[in-house]
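Notes from the 1:1 (GR / supervisor)

We went over the backlog. Supervisor wanted to see one worked example end to end before approving the batch request, so GR pasted a single chain during the call. The sequence is below; no edits were made to it. Supervisor asked that the structure be written out right there so they could see what the output format looks like.
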Amino acid sequence: MIVTTTDFIPGYEVEVLDVVFGNTVRSKHLGKDITAFLKGLVGGELEEYTDMLTDARREAMNRMANEASRLGADAVVNVRFTTSTTGTRAAELLAYGTAVRLKKA
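Structure output shown during the call:
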């Protein structure tokens, strides 16, 4: 499965199937939140949250690609990400794009 942020794939014509989504909502346990809070006081990267969002992005992309596969897609083009807060200690990461079938040009 090709996943790209571009709206085309060189050498191919695309047949648009549908918009596909993948999301996940994540939170860290209290111990990691406290560690991140203390690091935030002195500055620097909050690795606990970086790791959480890296895992969330990977999971959201996998879910989006799986939805595209169920539609019979060869690729997902024009992929975008967005995040939102869904609670006091939780964040959603959403991946979305257009599922397409590819034909050699």
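Supervisor's comment: The mean pLDDT is 88.
Batch request approved.
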